[in-house]
Structures are given as structure tokens and as C-alpha cells.
Amino acid sequence: MIRPLLLLNACERYDIRMWERFEKKGLDPDAFIEEGQSLWESIGINERSRDVMSRALSSGWLEREIDGCAKLGASLVTFKDPLYPPLLLELADAPLVLYVHGARLALPGNVIAVVGTRRCSSYGVQVAREIAGQAARLGWSVVSGGAKGIDGAAHSACLEKGGFTATVLGTGIDVVFPPEHRKLFGLIRESGALYSEYGLGCGGNGWRFPRRNRIIAGLASQTVVVEAPERSGALITARHAAEAGRDVWAVPGRIDDGRCAGSNRLILDGAMPLISIEHFFTSHGLSGDTFKDEAGAGDRVKNSADMTDVEKILVALLTNQGDRTIDILASEAKMSAAEVSKAISMLSVKGIVFSSQHGRYSLKD
């Protein structure tokens, strides 16, 4: 079954609906390859796609693709496979084949999509991290698109909490895009998975990313848009989620911040406002005690005796308000910038603070 489905998938424009046209003919799956052009034309495959498949067969691409995945250690999961994500099958335009590279093929627990803009604020990073981190602690899976900004923050926080996260790529699974996420993608492969419907070696063409967003939405029961301008791929993901009957949440943002214009519009259009992390998770039947216990654990870490007096002062300042630079902390703590920088470095090593962006620091959730 893998060969005919992989061949049709090579066209990059057809989904399971096209295969259903073939199945209505009552033919054996092997006939899809054996009968070729005349059969393809009879079920509505256009000339360009027929040429793509003909060249793939004559050039040996099909065998090379299967062998390439085997050498990479990746799996090819068709929509006929029991390991194919069941929620994804609910999409009318579910992909024929998923290339999966990672430690696990299936997404465990509830699945939440956390998405947003690449050009996010430090507040957006913080919220994305808190949502994904809490999801990981509760045994949920986090799915996103692997981009810089909100996506990367969600993936990283989930991994830091020992959770399972999956990235849906707009490239082949052997292509690192953006290049800055090479290390992150490596970590995701070790404990989670990289997903793609695109063949090996496919680059980051612009049109592929909006199309892959339907897969992000299709994998998750809940989609959370943290920050998104009016023209954002995250809004495409939210639209696909809503069309599939999934819950869509949006984090309210400042009305004068263009990075939040699209996500605020989602709330106006009916998305649920995510007014607090606790409210989001307790709305899914979880006890509020879950969050009290987690808060207590965090306080014990931050009040640990394994901190110097300087570190404790800086943690106290960051508890009141994060997203501070070294210079601001030095001024507030009445210390030298060098002294603060050294202490912040140690707190980062201990996993107590993180660099949100542009040299600013906040406490980890």
C-alpha cells in the first residue's frame, strides 16, 4: 500500500479524497501504478501531476525515497496505517502520507497546538512557555510549527518539562528550516517527532507552510493562538481548527500592538479568550489543586538554599516582574553589571531563569 500512496503524495496537491476516487473503482492498490496514465486521468488527476508521477516511476524516485527514509531512520505512515493520528483522519483533506522522524510515532495524551507569530513579544514567549510547560507536566502533547518565536518557545518549554512535542514542518523532514533551530529539532527527534507530508529534500517554499497548518490543527483537540498579526499563518491554523470543530483559544493582547491584532480579532469572531493558564486547563476538567501543587514546587525551587545572596536578590526582583536586562537588574539591585551577569549565568545553569529575547531575562515557570 505504501508505494501507490507515496507516489500520489509526490504530486503535493492531493489528499485522501483523491485516493477514495480510486477505491471506488474496486481495483487492487497495485493497479494504481500498473495501469498508469489512463487510470490516473479517469479519476481526475491533472496532466501536470500525471507527469510528476510518470517521472517519479521512470527515474526510480519511489524506491530511492523509501530507501532514503530507511537510512534516515524515519517512518512512512499512510492514512491506512493504525499509527496514523486518529484526530487527523477527521480532516476532509487529511494527508495521504506522513513522514515521521523521531522517537515516537504516536502523540500521547491530549494534544494541544500552541502557535503564533515569529516576531513575538517577550510576554508572548512567556505565555507560550507557561502553556506548553503546564501541558507537559499534565502529560499532554504539544504540537506546533517549529518556527522562531512562539512555536520555538512552546517546543522548548515542553521539552524542558520532560514532555512530548511534535513539529509539523513545511519542508522535508531532512531539511532544517529555520537553520537556527537545528539543535531544537535534534532535541525534538530524541524524545518527540518531526512530521511532514513533503518528500525528502523539499525546501522551504512559501506556499508549503500555509498548507501544512491544516495538519497542526488536525493533530490537536485544542488550538491556542498566543500572538498573531492580521496576516499570520497562526490564523490559518485557527481557521482549520474551527472548520474541523476543534476548540480555538486566543490570548488577549494590547489593542495598540500589531502583533496581537489577528489574535484579538479571533476573540471577536468567537474564539475563547485564554484569560489565565489555570482557567484554560481547569476548563478541561482538571482540579485547581493541580496548579497549587505546581506553584508550590516552583516556589521551593526559587527559594532553594542552593543560591547565593546575590542570586536570591535577583530572583526576588524577577519574581515581581520579568523581562529585565542586566543593566536594569544591576541598577535595581545596586550591583555592578559584571556581578549581575555572573549571577544570572549561574541561575540559567540551575534552570531558574531564561533569556526571553534581546538580552532580557525572566524566571522559568
Walk across the major sheet and give the strand order. 1-2-6-5-4-3-7-8-9
Give, in order, the helices and strands: HHHHHHEEEHEHEHEHEHEHEHHHEHHEE
Question: Could you say how many structural domains there are in total?
Answer: 3
> In the CATH hierarchy, what is the architecture of the largest domain at level 2?
3-Layer(aba) Sandwich
Which structural class is indicated by helix and strand composition?
Answer: alpha/beta
What overall form do the CA principal axes indicate?
Answer: elongated
Name the poorly predicted regions.
295-302
Summarize the structure.
The protein is an alpha/beta fold and 365 residues long. The protein has helices spanning 2-9, 16-23, 31-35, 37-42, 47-58, 61-72, 122-137, 150-160, 182-191, 208-219, 233-243, 261-268, 277-282, 289-302, 309-320, 326-333, 337-349, and strands at residues 75-78, 97-102, 111-115, 141-144, 164-168, 193-196, 222-225, 247-250, 272-273, 324-325, 353-357, 360-363.
